[in-house]
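Hi team,

As requested, here is the filled-out complex form for the 4'-deoxy-4'-aminopyridoxal-5'-phosphate run. I kept the field names the same as last time so the parser does not choke. Let me know if anything looks off before we queue the next batch.

— J.
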Amino acid sequence: MRTLDDLIKPSVRRLRPYTLTPYRVPVKLNQNENPFGAPPAIIEETLRRTAGRDWARYPDFVPANLQATLARFAGWAPDGIIIGNGSNEIIQALLTILVAPGTAVVLSEPTFTVYRLMVEVLGGTVVNVPPRPDFSYDIPGMIDAAQRTQSVALILCSPNNPTGVTVSELELRTVLQNFDGFVVVDEAYHEFCEQNFVPLLAEFPRLVVLRTFSKAMAMAGLRIGYGLVAPDIAGDINKAKLPYNVNFFSLTAAQVAVEMYATELRPLVEQIVRERTRVAAALAELTWFRLLPSQANFHLLHTPHIAPSHLFEQLLAQGILIRDVSRYPLLKDYVRFNLGTPEENNALLTALQAARPEQFG
Ligand code: PMP
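And here is what came back:
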């Protein structure tokens, strides 16, 4: 009789699963969500539009309305927009059409862990090019590695989760001009730095831009993301995507969120960015920590004098949930937290102030 090791791909059997404990706490700063919640106006309008919808009927095969809305919103062709059940699903569909045993993908870790997970589930190999000491991307190193290994794709997350660093347009152009595989830019947090690489799509047909409704758009619970790509490539990615992947309720909510972005969501994004500056200034006073600059809605905190697991538990005991990222490559002494509401940030600052180690008096 065959064992599971005979049946399940070895690349999957040896993987450590990606998981997260669902702590219920008053101050939740561990998943880079929008702390203000979905604006009531967006919820009400979504409920109104979906109230009469027959649950027995499938959504449209092609979500053309949302594609058209996103096309206008982002400035790209509707048939070059792929809508996913979270941007995770776009990452999965894209890598499914590119990666097989023997193919390589270039990453720079620490970065979003789902990239490696998907490459390895599909039997491919990750070529990791570590960042520089300040966590900026080693762009020449990444290009060299990608060319040398004939990688199918090179993935840049900008701003990067969990470091908060961005890639510049010049750096991205250098990659696009010197590497003939796919170049993926994950813009999950772009609203917090106003970076936008969509205009480069017309110039570089191997560029893929990923976006999500889970962060600035305050809709993580409804699972919507999208990819922007040359229309003929979208056709191939769609072959790997499950039909009817996004339910009618989420499609409608995304439509409403885009329509109301300027009035309902942008002010929240602006407030989060102001909080980022305020929290960074306050933390600069706490000399036992070192805060890294961030262009996103979260911060990486270097904690050389307190073990990250200890700090995590200490804050959890006070009802504050942050992310212990000490198992990520290069981040042995780091934790990550996202910006919360002003009150939540004050609670965090007070708790971090109280976490002062003895030698700091
Ligand atoms: N990309 C990055 C960089 C992320 O941090 C996340 C979520 N943490 C995602 C993609 C996935 O987002 P979604 O909820 O759209 O699947």
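Two things worth flagging: Residues 40-260 form a domain with the Aspartate Aminotransferase; domain 2 fold (CATH 3.40.640.10). The chain has two domains: 4-37+263-360, 40-260.

Thanks,
J.
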